[in-house]
Amino acid sequence: MNTSPSNRKANAFHAQAKNALNDATLKQALRSATDTFAERRSAAIAAVPDWEALREQARLVKDATVARLDHYIEQFADNAEQAGATVHWARDGKEACAIVQKIAEDNGATRLVKSKSMATEEIHLNKALAERALEPVETDLGEWIIQLAGETPSHIIVPAIHMTRDQVGELFVDKLGIPPSNDPKTLCAHARERLRSHFAQADLGISGVNFGVAETGSILILENEGNVRMTTTMPKVHVAVMGIERVIPRFKDLEVFLRLLPRSGTGQHLTTYQSILTGTDSAQDSANGQGPEQVHIVLLDNGRSKIAVDEKMRETLACIRCGACLNACPVYQTVGGHAYGTVYPGPIGAILTPQLAGMHEAKPLPFASSLCGACKDVCPVKIDIPSLLLELRQRAVEGTDHEPATKRSFFESMSWRMWSWFMRGPKRFRFASAMARLGQSMPLVHRLVPPMAAWHSTRELPRLAKRSFRNTYKGPSK
Amino acid sequence: MSSAREQILGTLRSQPGLKVPPLPDVMTSASSDATPIAERIAAFTAILNKLGAPVDVAPDMTAAATRITEVLAQHNASSLALSDADEVLAIAQTLPATIERIPHDAPRESLLRSHAGLSTAQWAIAETGTLALVSRHERHRLSTLLPDLHIALVPASRMLATLGDAFVRIGPNGAPDAPTITFITGPSRTADIELELIVGVHGPKALHVVIVADA
Fold this sequence. Notes:
heterodimer; A: alpha/beta; Fumarate Reductase Iron-sulfur Protein, Chain B, domain 2; Rossmann fold; 3 domains; 6-stranded parallel beta sheet; 4-stranded mixed beta sheet; globular; B: alpha/beta; 12 strands
């Protein structure tokens, strides 16, 4: 099957995953990347004595915020406007894209630069802007590589994690006409030079937001490269796209999240740069190029408000987008981000996508997990991802007010009915156990007879003991 | 536009019966660490050195000027973009005449071609090896970002112990002290190609901190 970016779908997870499994280069890249990340993360948090207390605090803050998101997001918007920013509200991706388009057109902006933002990926902002000949140049190195390759990110922290240095080198030779090289340092120097000229000429910069502070209207953006600082300083207009769940109540709450996010994401104690931006600079500073003349903040709902009032699922919104659950997940480690066919891959993507895009768009994703719980263990805000996956599985099968139930195959519903009947009487149960023991002694039966055959194509059923516990308990066999 | 706002807020308010857990008190490391300044400087230095950024301690401004001149020579830097901090303007006067000085409000083209940038920092954080620059006190956004080399001249008395101490200073009364606050911890870096660390992708390729004892 064709897995070019535009053809990937969450509903085609199984085929995409199978494809990924056959890609040896991808496997190698994923294995080394996720191992490296996991080691760096462990080392970074081992040096923090009160790690658990930080996680607990962050979660309590997030829970309190999500429960009163109406209050905090309104407070944020009012304070940001007070400080000189213009705040826009977008119900969905289409509305958000139209707002950014209009800001660009109102200002006659034609040369756009952009720093990495998952919210803008989620709403396919670049594609919408490209339709008006306004496509921004991605300036995060990984995102730029992806943009040159016509690809989509496969990791929320390291977008080009699936590519090797050889592949990046070939891409640069092809697209930029550089002399052949696979040396990351050389490739990076070319990127610096090319992107500098884009920054120098840009008239509008687009960024995401890591945290928005309700009581002050400030936004905080973390990065390592300096491209966020460039994007938010050099152009005359700065547009920040912010999911409404990025808000936290107090300025001083930032400390706890700054301790958690970099360590969980890249294993750094702090990323190289944090920009804390509140409204606009003075007119004089803007005139001197010390900051943009206009700051726009686009508050994006796109399904988030519905999650906030879904009591069982609302903890999804505590996520701070660190990517730790991707690196820890045995499924992500094996198939990579593209197999998920969505903007948000891995465990967090498997709970976020069906809720944001609708279950009908992403039905296989809640099932793309062994429920091992590694994601929950590493999550800096202690999101119980396995339980949320189970809840979504139930909704996928039984349907909801908005989504149809899954039609089960004849064999599957028959099997469950039989299982239920056998379990409801001790004699029937003993009979079924005896039959199962007999079946297991004939090795080919369970591999050939549907529906067992399908189940067995990728797993092995644990063998039943020769004697049941019940019989052993009764005493030695006669 | 207001209808989008109302609709989003309306959905958020559509289930008034849901649980509202209380907001916990702020957790902060402020004032939790009383180590003397000399130890803070040592911790700050150790972290930045690990990130490839040298840290010098100069006994006075004259010594600091000498050190800055040496660092500029090491990097073959003959042009220096200045922030508008008093300390920066004062020390710039004493640097050799061969070094071109570029003021913070110079045309962008000259800032873009300057080899080095000189700023102070309003605060330094020992725990994390971080410089905190506050725009209201110092216009720093371009001079610390565009040149290949960033030199920061930091009075020793501004060395704080923890991140929490910095949040108290940059956010007195819980609100940020300026429209732009920038935290800088080492030179610009990326690991976007096979997670291999490369220094100097968009921002400065080198950071050099000169801590100067207070007069």
